[in-house]
Design brief:
alpha/beta, Rossmann fold, 8 strands, 19% strand
């Protein structure tokens, strides 16, 4: 993998005790073990402001998150399923991202739900969002249920394996693209 690549891990749930952040912190630690240039944007921290237009002055956390996304070569995105959609907090975050600065980036997706329903629909929606930004999306998303989490950590070994595989495959895709 090219050492110059920057990675951003995005936990797309705004809930304070979100299961999504538990999974994405696992992804963050694994990605960071592969590449120190890895940052975490955790929407559970509630510091990303609601987008109100381009002419507003936003807080530094919001501006830094947008810049980290635009600077990163790889996006590892985790979202819960809310009402058959990805979270509105995740959509809000991408309102700050300039699509002119994102072509050629690569994204990996993890989707978390309470039960085995709606995964493909939400994967399609996130992939469409990535297409708007001209981001190449790893077609092999990870679908997990809340059963893979116990006592604030990912306990299911199969889930951990799928998450590591998604990170490895996404980084490999990015590395191949950056060789050209």
């Amino acid at each position: 993998m090219a050492e110059y690549m920057k990675i951003v891990v995005i936990s797309g749930s705004p809930r304070k005790n979100a299961n999504t952040q538990i999974i994405m912190k696992y992804v963050f630690e694994y990605a960071k073990s592969k590449n120190q240039e890895t940052k975490l944007i955790n929407l559970s921290d509630n510091q990303i402001e609601y987008y109100r237009g381009p002419d507003i002055e936003y807080n530094s956390t919001t501006k830094d998150a947008a810049n980290d996304i635009m600077d990163a070569d790889v996006w590892l995105i985790g979202s819960p399923i809310y009402n058959s959609f990805f979270s509105s907090a995740l959509k809000n975050l991408f309102e700050y991202v300039n699509y002119k600065k994102t072509p050629g980036k690569v994204a990996g997706i993890t989707i978390l739900a309470a039960g085995n329903i709606g995964f493909i629909n939400v994967q399609t929606l996130i992939t469409q969002l990535m297409s708007y930004f001209r981001v190449i999306t790893n077609p092999k998303a990870v679908f997990l249920t809340t059963e893979s989490i116990k006592e604030n950590s990912v306990t299911d070994e199969d889930a951990k394996s799928k998450l590591r595989e998604m990170v490895d495959e996404t980084l490999e895709m990015a590395s191949k693209l950056h060789q050209n």
